[in-house]
Amino acid sequence: MTRFLNPSSDAALQKAARELREWGQSRQGLRVALIYGPVSAEDRLYHSKCPVEQRSVTALGVALEEIGARWKVLDPCEPDFIIGLAGYDVALSNLHSPYGEDGRLQGLLDYLRVPYCGSGVAASAVAADKILCKRVMLTLGVPTPGWHVWSGGPVTWNGRPVMVKPPFGGSSVGMSLVRDPADLPAALAEAAGDDEAEVLVEEYVAGTPMTVGLLELPGGSIVAFPPLATEATDADFYDADTKLDVDSRSAVTVRAAELEPEVLDKVTGHAGTLWDGLGLRGSARIDFILTEDGDPYVLEVNSTPGMSRNSNYAVGAAMVGLTHTDVVLAMLHEALARPPYDVPLPTPAFAGTTRAREAAVSP
After folding, report:
1. Per-residue pLDDT tens for 230-251?
2. CB 38 within 8 A of CB 44
3. How far apart (Å, rounded) are the C-alpha atoms in residues 164 and 156?
4. Could you tell me what percent of the chain has a pLDDT over 70?
5. Pairing of strands 31-35, 90-93
6. How many CA atoms lie within 13 A of 11 on its CB side?
7. Is 330 exposed, middle or buried (0-12, 13-18, 19+ CB in 10 A)?
8. How far apart are CA 64 and CA 78, in angstroms?
9. Three-state secondary structure along 215-256?
């Protein structure tokens, strides 16, 4: 059974931090592939708008330097990406949304037998699919706002505000808060995108957005970081522009959530249920909305949390005494502590040259 540590587990956390740092000293020269590139809409947004110094990949690179790793950024948009992967001891992905966070990259790394940080194929795929993840939440008994799936056709409106969300993707890209029925068709079209995907239409629950980070430590125990409350000051909700904050306007405040003990127990309990129920590994972040009555509802699960220096995840880790570098060490440790691959797959052989394959386009 998974052992979950809370922020008051000082002795256990200090011991884990010491073990991580000692382990890191013994892994000088570890070859780490830091995977980053503008693949998904979310990553393209950050790549184009987020200042370099604010990017997760920049902070991760600094941490790898502190660890003494031999690392390189590998861009999945480059034709030699797969060949490059095979030459590293471990992969640390900074990709989000489709092709990076949804199991496809994880499956490739499994086939290449390159250890990687974070959750495997199944957990990544379920967490990344907002609609499928909602269904799993219901099965696990985790409270989540009411919802339905729109897949085209007539638009229905029950008279209450709704959040319209694309089925995949993060950072609130393509998401809309709809209060007026006249705005619903445009919101659905934006969320569906060019591929006319199904759309998640979720009941809008008023309250305080809240996030809980989870990190796997040596020995397999999981620490739940203190819940953080996030409040947007210049937007109706915590949208993409607010998260990017490219103008450094500080349009969102992040603080420790002041929760009654019973509410804190509910929040950490739901986070633990999702960790075990989805089979998450390494690190994750669970996003909640907390109503004025103290009822927490889970909004989504992020299997690849943002790792910039000032990210919610890094702030939560610091509150339990873990530095950004400690977190990266924990992620690497978890990846390399897994049992070795033992399936009878051939060692991948690559040709000396490779060509980029363009996506098929219908005539």
Report:
1. 887 655 555 445 444 444 445 5
2. yes
3. 13
4. 86
5. parallel
6. 0
7. buried
8. 22
9. EECCCCCEEECCCEEEEECCCCCCCHHHHHCCCCCCCEEEEE
